[in-house]
Amino acid sequence: MTVPATAPEPRQGRIKVAQRRKPWAISLSVLLVLCGLNLHAQDPWPDLPQNNAAVEIPAQEWPRRPGPRSVRVLIHYPGGMLAGVKPDTGLMLTLHNWGGTDCVGTAAPQALADRLNVVAICVNYLQSGKADAIEAAEPYDYGYLQALDALRALWIVRHGLQTRGIVFDDGRIYSTGGSGGGNVTLMANKLAPRTFTAIVDMCGMKKLSDDIAFHLPGGSTLNARYSNDPAAPNYLSPDEQALRFVGNPAHLEAMRQLGTATKIFCVHGVQDATCPFADAEELVANLQAARLDVQARFVTPGDLDGKVFTSAGHPLGNRTEIVLQVAGDVLRTDGKAFVRRMTPTDFERKDEAVRYQTANGEFVISYATGYPVGRFEPRKGTP
What we know:
This protein has 383 residues and is an alpha/beta fold. Helices cover 28% and strands 20% of the residues. The strands form 2 sheets. It has a 9-stranded mixed β-sheet with strand order 1-2-3-5-4-6-7-8-9, with helices on both faces. The longest helix is centred in the middle third of the chain and has 20 residues, at 144-163. It starts with 15 loop residues before the first strand and ends in a 5-residue tail after the last strand. The relative contact order is 0.13.
């Protein structure tokens, strides 16, 4: 089934620091919606936590489980305190693996915060945890709503700093992640192609192949639990599958025309059979053909040092140190290849220019309210 052209959008609410929303707050939100009041991104958000903490944010509805949805976001400041944010401090997503939660399977957020001078953000995006990611009846999202969740988390931290008048370096926006987090990092850059200065994908999935989507024998052990039967509840449409190919040549061209300048680091083991190495080779080749800025680090058995790289397969090694070794010169303000993004983010542009055409329509990522909202628009005449 395709994503509806217009999906119900949960309204903005206050950030909750590590607590559940009170019943009266839910009733108030419902009342405001019924009264026709729109709570947009321009409305004030509460203060960011003074110290490292978890907050909850509203997320876009998941059509496979209709209803309000929220996402847990973990914020890590340099030195563990909001006061540690300085004019040269950047923002960085660090995203967990398929089936993980919080900051598992990715670069350690506090190490990134302290060593790179960034606010490091972990996100419990859609289907975090083994129950929803691996054991649930619904198919695995594979990067779409998950990336929108991650982008909303990034937007909220950025918006919160701006609301408080805290100066930070908006030209230093990064993302990294391992395995499933690498996939979400790549998709976040696709859905916000004018936002990131650099991203580091570590052994992430590059495409929703037939092998992984339908769990075909003899391929990857990954099973996204989709069906190719149009009558099945877990049907994967050609449109959804095309969007989830981060190396889709037509979509890369659309990114190039939008002016994307993200430095993309692709770190992948040549012996990786879980997230197939061949898919990494294809992605890098397609990025190069589209004249986008990509640096491949394909890890061979000869690269293993027992400290940073310990495997040429899926694990790779110490994922914190991998980020710092592979991309540190670009990410650190004193790095030899340090660079800042000089153009406005997608959040600032507040447009609907991010569009990816597929066989039966196009996916639109709207930034009209600042944070992203995704929708699919079927082509006229499409049933």
